TrEMBL record:
PROSITE patterns associated with the record: ADH_SHORT
GO-annotated molecular function: oxidoreductase activity, acting on the CH-OH group of donors, NAD or NADP as acceptor
Family indicated by similarity: Belongs to the short-chain dehydrogenases/reductases (SDR) family.
GO biological process: carbohydrate metabolic process
Gene3D superfamilies: NAD(P)-binding Rossmann-like Domain (3.40.50.720)
InterPro entries linked: NAD(P)-bd_dom_sf, Sc_DH/Rdtase_CS, SDR_fam
Organism: Weissella soli
Keyword terms of this UniProt record: Oxidoreductase
Protein name (record): NAD(P)-dependent dehydrogenase (Short-subunit alcohol dehydrogenase family)
Amino acid sequence: MTTIIDKLRLDGKKIYITGGAQGLGKSMAQALAEAGADVAIVDIQLEKAQATAAEIAAATGQKVIAVKADVTNPEDVQKMITTVVDKLGGLDVAFNNAGMVINTPAEETTFDQWTKVINLNLNGVFLTSQAAGKYMIEHGGGAIINTASMSAHIVNRPQPQASYNASKAGVIQLSKSLAIEWAKKGVRVNTLSPGYMATDLTQNSEELKPLIDIWNDWAPLGRMGKPEELQGIAVYLASDTSSFATGADFAIDGAFTAW
């Protein structure tokens, strides 16, 4: 008998995850490999990606490779897809996770700052989704997971981050649009919207330390999430168990957006 645990296995699946060298991307990449997938750690920081790939490969026994790519560059993105397919033997799941935030008051935000955030968070997700989707349409289908944020649903406080919020709202609407366009072409597209997460970066940032108490005070659970608390949803969305899930946003935020 095939159990639900069996169905959540990712044996034989080939997956890439952008921004996978550290933080949430690394944690989710670890889970995908633990579930049986071969994984490409895609990051603009190649040395970090190589270290992460080696660490996950040693821990899981799966094939884990590192690929350098600038996801805001169309040529780089296409080269990344080609490399992943060549080295892993295909592409079943695309996890577009790379992103950034710049906290500046809207009236003081420079056009360069605005463009950097929109270019990585939204344009980068479009380029990687487009390239992965085209491959999947031509090769029998697949699943795309795009990292959005609870900031697509709320206005964070006290930090000002209009560019980030707008970019992540765009990721959700883009993903819904792609889900509709590709529904009958075998490609599912969903978004994952984390809340405040206690990564090494957030925990060790002097700039963010004054904000963490404020965030925790507002959080219904009274704390930030742990990176490993996103691992289950990542595996679910990558697995065939989620075959009826497309065009959906999964907010894993400790009820922060339920206020």
